[in-house]
UniProtKB/TrEMBL annotation:
CDD domains: BRCT_DNA_ligase_like (cd17748), LIGANc (cd00114). InterPro entries: BRCT_dom, BRCT_dom_sf, DNA_ligase, DNAligase_adenylation, DNAligase_N, Hlx-hairpin-Hlx_DNA-bd_motif, NA-bd_OB-fold, NAD_DNA_ligase_OB. Keywords: DNA damage, DNA repair, DNA replication, Ligase, Magnesium, Manganese, Metal-binding, NAD, Zinc. NCBIfam families: dnlj, PRK07956.1. Zn(2+) binds at C393, C396, C411, C416. NAD(+) binds at D35, K36, E37, F38, D39, S84, L85, E110, R133, E167, K279, K303. Pfam families: BRCT (PF00533), DNA_ligase_aden (PF01653), DNA_ligase_ZBD (PF03119), HHH_5 (PF14520), OB_DNA_ligase (PF03120). This is DNA ligase. Its EC number is 6.5.1.2. GO terms for molecular function: DNA binding; DNA ligase (NAD+) activity; metal ion binding. DNA ligase that catalyzes the formation of phosphodiester linkages between 5'-phosphoryl and 3'-hydroxyl groups in double-stranded DNA using NAD as a coenzyme and as the energy source for the reaction. It is essential for DNA replication and repair of damaged DNA. It comes from Leptospira meyeri. It catalyses: NAD(+) + (deoxyribonucleotide)n-3'-hydroxyl + 5'-phospho-(deoxyribonucleotide)m = (deoxyribonucleotide)n+m + AMP + beta-nicotinamide D-nucleotide. The gene is ligA.
Length: 667
């Protein structure tokens, strides 16, 4: 007979394990197991506690929701418990629940957005506190950080006391752009969004492309006239809160069919979703069903199967990024996952390898979500030994070092061949100088031949034209495309040339902000760097943080960087910004415009800004004493308050449209 395990011992083990994973997910934003595996642990603990009620304690994780509390924030006692959702993973589980709640009832079916949960407390109609879910009972006050999300209404149309619940998230596109600027150090949009609202400095948060969708309202007193979920949605819509697309009210019997149409769309969503949420529409029915200490009985999450597949690590090699960052990569036995063949999966860094226990020969689970590169998620069969990163750069043998408090190792040799190669690949890429025909393969060939060792060599490559034509795979036509594209890249202005040379912290966004603030050429930046108040001046620019200022000033004084830019200018590249298209009608000359909130006629709102610059105005990203006008729309936040304080002229969307009409400017 098998030995019966001591339930008290197993319960203690499970509680410890669950607590550990709760902390990894909610506090460190670095989950190590999938939601499904986590749920299995909780289910095992639940059934043991059910069989042994005398062993149940109030602090058991089965009675608490996971906590995201961090010590550095002030705490807020939630007005109602902030509950979580019980997960279902298949149609059978969902149908069982549906039978209990009523197959003929109506339900709201919504995307489950993978971000960070937030409560927006309104007092007398004014946004008073923004609080994380925390333990469900108390949360962290992150008001100033969350207020940087401009689509959140600061005031309601009535002096109501209520709280709005939503999810702060990042789109895949925003995540990729932001992560690229930071050398790819963030693992996924959820972790970055959750980490962002816990930053110390709201100015740093303002730099991050956070967004919000809201999905519920809790009323402080009676919810007069609000009997259905759809009434809540109508209220949120009326108050101009951002709502997720596709939410729909359906009858229970059509749920499984509807789920299929969501499933088909899932991989095309521009933001991360980790399933669906199904909620009873009738609020009175919800009340009668009630809730457990963790989750309501009237709602369920439906998780799509996680895209995980098993394979074996055959080798581990390294990507040496253009900034010198070393990223270990597992070369795996090829598998087909979400429509592509995966041969490499990232292992991020040594800490990650250690936590997984990964090494050559290990059987592992690989994930692929959205646009993000595949990652090793879990070791299912351990290797003989856990992999240890070398102490030296695999390409140039320079000793690897850690920078600041980063978990990553860097090769600091700026002439490291791998680094150089990746700089070249980045420079030529579509988003940068867009040199058609020069992809990774072609660049690698020219690099290995020694024809292109550094960026300037691209512009003298002509001398090898005949030799290139002798190479396999380089015909007249493809070689012409390359040389035409190299020549055409000289038309790209400072908006492209500056971020393309791969200076850390100086990506497209920072460049755009610098240009907006009048630093529209390399020369102007160098002159600034020589002035006494350079640091002060740069720090005062909204959207440029202290780390960027330090890095930028260092680049502007660095001899090799100065030499590189001088050479490129000599070769005909533009290191000044082009004038933006100007019109004969110039009503905005001498004016400095800032824009905030959302607009009906200008989506994205850059369309409004472009009209202003085209007709003589200057656009600025933050309100200061130099700003003359603020164009504001619903969801305008702290910028509107600041502009009011400073006496900046406030212009609403309809006033702006009037103004354009009066001047004869067409949309
Ligand atoms: S409703 C009591 N709706 O999922 C009902 N939650 O695992 C509470 N989430 O903590 C939540 N999208 O952060 C709801 N459309 C949606 C959601 C959603 C994402 C998150 C939320 C919650 C977690 C539960």
């Amino acid at each position: 007979m098998p030995k019966k395990e001591n339930p008290a011992k197993r319960i203690a083990e499970l509680r410890k394990e669950i607590q550990k994973h709760n902390d990894l997910y909610y506090k460190k934003n670095t989950p190590k197991i999938s939601d499904k595996e986590f749920d299995l642990l909780v289910k095992e603990l639940q059934s043991l506690e059910k069989a042994n009620p005398d062993l149940v304690v109030e602090s058991s994780p089965t009675l608490q929701v996971g906590s995201d509390l961090s010590p550095q924030f002030s705490k807020f006692k939630h007005k109602v418990p902030v509950l979580s959702l019980e997960n279902t993973y298949n149609e059978t589980e969902l149908s069982e629940w549906l039978t209990k709640t009523g197959i003929d009832e109506f339900y709201s079916l919504e995307w489950k957005i993978d971000g960070a949960s937030i409560l927006l407390y309104y007092e007398n109609g004014k946004l008073a506190h923004c609080v994380t879910r925390g333990s469900g009972g108390i949360g962290d006050i992150v008001t100033e950080n969350v207020k940087t999300i401009e689509s959140i209404p600061q005031t309601l149309s009535e002096p109501l006391n209520l709280s709005v619940r939503g999810e702060i998230f990042m789109t895949f596109a925003d995540f990729e752009e932001f992560n690229e600027e930071y050398g790819g150090k963030f693992a996924n949009p959820r972790n970055l969004a959750a980490g962002s609202i816990k930053q110390k400095d709201p100015l740093d948060v303002a730099k991050r492309p956070l967004r919000i969708y809201v999905y519920d309202v809790y009323f402080s007193s009676s919810r007069k006239g609000t009997n259905k979920h759809k009434d809540i949605v109508a209220l949120l819509k009326k108050e101009k809160f951002p709502l997720a697309p596709d939410s729909t009210i359906i009858q229970g019997k059509t749920l499984l069919k509807e789920i299929e149409s969501f499933r088909n769309k899932k991989d095309k969503m521009p933001f991360p979703v980790d399933g669906l949420v199904i909620k009873l529409d009738d609020l009175n029915l919800r009340e009668s069903l009630g809730e457990t200490s963790q989750s309501p009985r009237w709602a369920r999450a439906f998780k799509f199967d996680a895209l995980l597949k098993e394979t074996t690590i055959e080798e581990i090699d390294f990507a040496i990024g253009r900034t010198g960052k070393i990223t270990p990569r597992a070369k795996v036995t090829p598998i087909s996952l979400a429509g592509t063949t995966v041969t490499y999966a990232t292992l991020h860094n040594q800490d990650y390898i250690d936590q997984l226990g990964a090494g050559i020969g290990a059987k592992v689970l690989i994930s692929k979500r959205g646009e993000i590169i595949p990652a090793v998620e879990k070791v299912t069969v351990p290797p003989k030994s856990v992999f240890v990163l070398p102490k030296e750069c695999p390409a140039c043998k320079t000793k690897l070092t850690k920078v600041d408090d980063s978990v990553d190792f860097f090769c600091t040799n700026r002439n490291c061949p791998e680094r150089k190669l990746n700089q070249l690949i980045f420079f030529c890429s579509k988003k940068q100088m867009n040199i058609e025909g020069l992809g990774e393969r072609q660049i690698q060939i020219f690099f290995e031949k020694g024809w292109v060792k550094d960026i300037p060599d691209l512009y003298t490559l002509n001398k090898y034209k005949d030799t290139i034509l002798e190479l396999d795979g380089f015909g007249e036509k493809s070689v012409k495309i390359i040389f035409d594209a190299i020549e055409k890249s000289k038309e790209k202005d400072f908006r492209f040339t500056l971020p393309s040379i791969g200076l850390n912290e100086v990506g497209p966004k920072v460049t755009e902000i610098l240009i907006e603030h009048g630093f529209d050429s390399w020369e102007k930046l160098v002159t600034l760097s020589k002035s006494k108040n350079a640091e002060e001046e740069l720090t005062s620019i909204h959207g440029i943080g202290p780390r960027t200022v330090d890095a930028l000033l260092a680049h502007l004084k660095d001899k090799e960087t100065l030499k590189l830019v001088k050479t490129l200018i000599g070769l005909g590249l533009k290191f000044q910004a082009d004038e933006t298209e100007k019109s004969d009608i110039q009503p905005f000359v001498g004016q400095s415009w800032c824009v905030t909130g959302s607009f009906e006629n200008f989506q994205p709102r850059d369309i409004a800004m472009d009209l202003i610059t085209k007709h003589g105005g200057k656009k600025v990203s933050g309100v200061s004493s130099k700003t003359t006008h603020l164009l504001y729309g619903p969801g305008a936040g702290s910028k509107l308050e600041k502009a009011t304080e400073l006496g900046v002229k406030l212009v609403s969307e309809s006033e702006f449209l009037e103004l354009l009409k009066k001047e004869g400017i067409e949309l």
